[in-house]
Fold this protein.
Amino acid sequence: MRRHDVDEAERLSSNAFRSPQVAPRPNGQPEPAYRPEPAGRDEPAAASWRRRLEHLLVHDAGGCWVAEDETGMVGFASSLRRETWWGLSGFFVRGDRQGMGVGHRLLEAALTHSQGAVRGLICSTSDPRAVRRYRAAGFTLHPAMLAYGTVDRSLLPVVDHVREGSASDLDLCDSLDRRTRGAGHGVDHPLILHEHRLVLVDDTTGSGYCYLNRSGGPYLLAASNMRTAQRLFWESLAHTNPDVAVQVRYLSAEQEWAVDVALAARLEIHNQGYLAYRFMKPAAPYVPSVHLM
Ligand SMILES: CC(C)(COP(=O)(O)OP(=O)(O)OC[C@H]1O[C@@H](n2cnc3c(N)ncnc32)[C@H](O)[C@@H]1OP(=O)(O)O)[C@@H](O)C(=O)NCCC(=O)NCCS
């Protein structure tokens, strides 16, 4: 992938979930039904998406690949390696080329960037084609939950000792990453801090950090213990708009502390996607960023 591919990759990823015409399977069987992920980005979200991919091209050029034919870009995969950890950030094939073997080859190319990085994490959609290739690459699939709904302000508890974070806190964030997921986010932290508000707890009861989504809720959260993680989760819910539904994705069974907060806030719990881990036990207490894990 090159810098000039970024705009097209953004458009392709935004449309890939909407694919109306999925190619028939080689054996002629009909496509199994699966619920597509929500799609569509507004312009600020699309601009953030492009900045993240440009960032990966600077730091992980060997992990970013495109597939092309005579019609132009038909798919791409973007991945990142941090310390001894590898993650898949984006993996999309254009609707009219899905199910024809393009994704298989793209993922093989991206996986070459994981050499020397034994651990791995992918926030997988429910697409059975993606799931099949992740398992083939040695990833263990943990079904994930989505917490969804508007937050009733009267249910919010008072959360003490949460403070605003800044660039001077990023070493603490990296140490919490290593403790929970086995590798720091390193160069990703300044990028995420540029896009998201950071809140922190660092006191005698524990340490933790949480980047907030634009509409509230956690974008990425790591903590030294569950109680601290719960305080940060509540704090992130306090920043939601009471009229706008919040979505917290990629909660697996290991994050019961988060499921309990979501239920106490009267959010709905749904099944959606998988957390795919390789050579590591599930990160906890932790809510991954979908893009930079
Ligand atoms: C997921 C995606 C990138 C895969 O790319 P693709 O080119 O469609 O996939 P491939 O044709 O290489 O097929 C991948 C595997 O699924 C199999 N497959 C094809 N159709 C399938 C179906 N309906 N059900 C289950 N498996 C299927 C293929 O046989 C192949 O397995 P194999 O290589 O072991 O034979 C693409 O379908 C896509 O963009 N999906 C929407 C976005 C998405 O969910 N991305 C994943 C982000 S985590």
